Amino acid sequence: MKHFSLLLGLALAVGAGACAGPDRPPCSRGEELETVCGFRNPEDIEFVETADIIIVSNMRHDGGQKSDGPLESGGFLSALLPQSRETHLLWPDGASAPDPSLGDPRCTEAPTAASFSPHGLTSIADANGATVYVAAHAGDGGGREAIEIFKLTGTASTTELTWKACIPSPDSVMINDVAVSADGLILASNYLPDSSHRHSVKASLFRQPTGDVMTWTRETGWSHLPETQSLMANGVALSRDGATALYTETIAQRLHRRAISTADGAIHIDLDGAPDNLTWTSRDTLLVATHTRAYELFGCFFRRGACRSAWAVYEITPETLKVTKRFAHSGDTIGAVATALEVNGEVFLSSVFDDRVGIIRLQDPIRDNATARGLNRPKLPRSSTGQLTCVAPCVRR
């Protein structure tokens, strides 16, 4: 039934182009679900603790939709300061200092602004800041499919990014998300062969895989991780020791866990909704955002204006694969949430089809106060807004 709903969503989306809703009100603070504007399709977010910033990947596939983003064309990376909510452009700003030893030695030039469309991202801290890895696509001005590598320096409002290297993806591979281990192994989701929507239709209707999960090392280059063929592999994560991979499969509505070295012992669980990105918490659990109404999500592919696709956030314990629902929302304030990122007692929310980032302030650290998946879960209470359901305690404004 869930696959039928996704297929139905695709069919309904074709007729949704003329159904764009009215513009949203301006972003505002002081709400139960706060919003910060100034973005273009902010698909993924990454907290860099050493710099005290959140890096935001702005894909900018909005076809000219109005926004107060900083560039006239092309995607970009921006910084969001968690405390002040201030934002500033990180890249492209012309900063480039090639270091081919960090990636493919044949890649020596940074992408142009018009040919840069960032998707998933991750970072590795070091003594002088952090190294940032961005899964990026060709933009309206051409370009390449690659993991672009940057060096981050400075803190807060003085943070800067300098392009250093890239790792081009193999032919017919669009990488959605990326994770990196301490020893340099890169894990990437081979999401689609190209940007055509026909792959989503085939995955839903005919269960035709669109890709898999891949690894890259400097010694061996790209490799397909055996037995990971997927219906749109999406968010990826690595365990702290780099030995275990976790990844989501959007069309199949699953989360997978398996060893990097072998498919023996691989396991998956079903989720409510189509899962997107994964982020680690300080409790060594994962947060996953899911899209809970397929027809709304796919409708946002085809229409312009505010995207009001409903979403939910779940917390997963990797060892047991216990799933706990944390938040749910109608999408009226921020839609199509792709990433939930916990930072200093708040959960930041990215959105693949919106112009804003959402923020939920927690009343206290998330506790295990909700019923695990598979047991009898009580009906969740509605908040006073009629939109945001909090299982983890939220601050009521």
Main β-sheet description: 5 strands, antiparallel
Number of helices: 3
Helix content: under 10%
Q: Label the overall shape.
A: globular
Total number of β-strand segments?
25
Could you spell the SSE succession in H and E letters?
A: HEEEEEEEEEEEHEEEEEEEEHEEEEEE
Mean pLDDT: 85
Describe the structure.
The structure is a single chain. The protein is mostly beta strands and 397 residues long. The chain has a domain of 142 residues. Helix content is 8%, strand content 40%. A 5-stranded antiparallel β-sheet has the order 18-19-20-21-25, with no helix packed on it. Strands 1-24-23-22 form a 4-stranded antiparallel β-sheet, with no helix packed on it. Strand 15 and strand 16 form a beta hairpin. The radius of gyration is 19 Å and the shape is globular. It starts with a helix and ends in a 7-residue tail after the last strand.
Q: Which structural traits does this protein have?
A:
single chain, 8% helix, mainly beta, 397 residues, disordered N terminus, five-stranded antiparallel β-sheet
Concise summary:
The protein is mainly beta and 397 residues long. It has three helices and 25 strands. The two termini are 39 Å apart.
Topology of helices and strands:
Elements: H1 2-14, E1 33-37, E2 42-48, E3 53-58, E4 76-80, E5 87-91, E6 117-126, E7 129-137, E8 146-153, E9 160-168, E10 174-180, E11 186-192, H2 198-206, E12 212-217, E13 221-224, E14 233-238, E15 244-249, E16 254-259, E17 267-270, E18 274-280, E19 286-291, H3 294-302, E20 311-317, E21 322-329, E22 337-343, E23 346-351, E24 356-361, E25 388-390
Antiparallel strand pairs: 1-24, 2-3, 3-4, 4-5, 6-7, 7-8, 8-9, 10-11, 11-12, 12-13, 14-15, 15-16, 16-17, 18-19, 19-20, 20-21, 21-25, 22-23, 23-24
Helix pairs in contact: 1-2, 1-3
